[in-house]
Amino acid sequence: MKFKKPKTLKEISLLLNIEYIGDSNFEILGINEIHVVEKGDIVFVDHPKYYDKALNSAATTILINKKVACPVGKALLISDDPFRDFNKITNHFNPFIASKVSIAESATIGENTIIQPNVFIGNNVSIGKNCVIHPNVTIYDNAVIGNNVIIHANTVLGADAFYYKNRPEGFDKLISGGRVVLEDFVDLGASCTIDKGVTGDTTIGKGTKIDNQVHVGHDTKIGKKCLIASQTGIAGCVIIEDEVTIWGQVGTTSGITIGEKAVILGQTGVTKSVAGGKTYFGTPISESREKLKELAELKRFLKERKNSK
Predict the structure, then answer these.
(1) Which fold has domain 2-93?
(2) What residues contact 29, with CB distance under 8 A and at least 6 apart?
(3) pTM
(4) Which residues are catalytic?
């Protein structure tokens, strides 16, 4: 999430009422999660296990819960609760604005786009030309939809990320300030849910077709010309490269990559990253031929054991 105008280290420290280490005029351009940080970003870290990863990331300001040596060319914000203060920054620069109408005045809708009854379109949404948005679709703030996109009934774009910190008093939500981006010629089936990014974008690439009742988690990147069948659940921060086919009732873990032109057969649990150009099946996932051989061998073993009794 980028700020509309650059801020200084001192300005952010005053906003949060916390100490800083570095030049008071050090420039800050936005905030991001560790996997998408860029120069000028703030990243937060609240566990020693991840200190080095955050300090050595592309982020140039680290919101951290311990005084440590500040890397050259970077700055630190010292907080007793970085998770809380990261949320404060999101709320300050991207506050929730309640809607009073079904289609926000700030939304832009391209030529020849059809909006069916009972569609909700939030603030600053951009929809391209020649799209069809079917009844009861909900499009949260700041979503970007390309040209020639079809979205079927009851689909939701831009719900919050499923991202919580476990505290003694209950689960504390990390506030989502990102977007959903659909490129040209994307089709979404009925009752799909596409979560927005926490700080970046959840993106579905050009020409990808998604069946009914598919869930896509926060900050996931789906490539071009992918096919994803119904009841598939894709976790957050997944990368699905171009021309991947995913059949029904597949589930993935977070933070993995599915390589270009891979085929994932139905009811597979994608428990790790997999290379492109191959077909996969089963839980834990393996190449389909290997998995079928394993099942055949297990069946033969059980039959032999039964016959030996």
Answers:
(1) 3.40.1390
(2) 2, 3, 6, 7, 38, 39, 40, 41
(3) 0.92
(4) 218
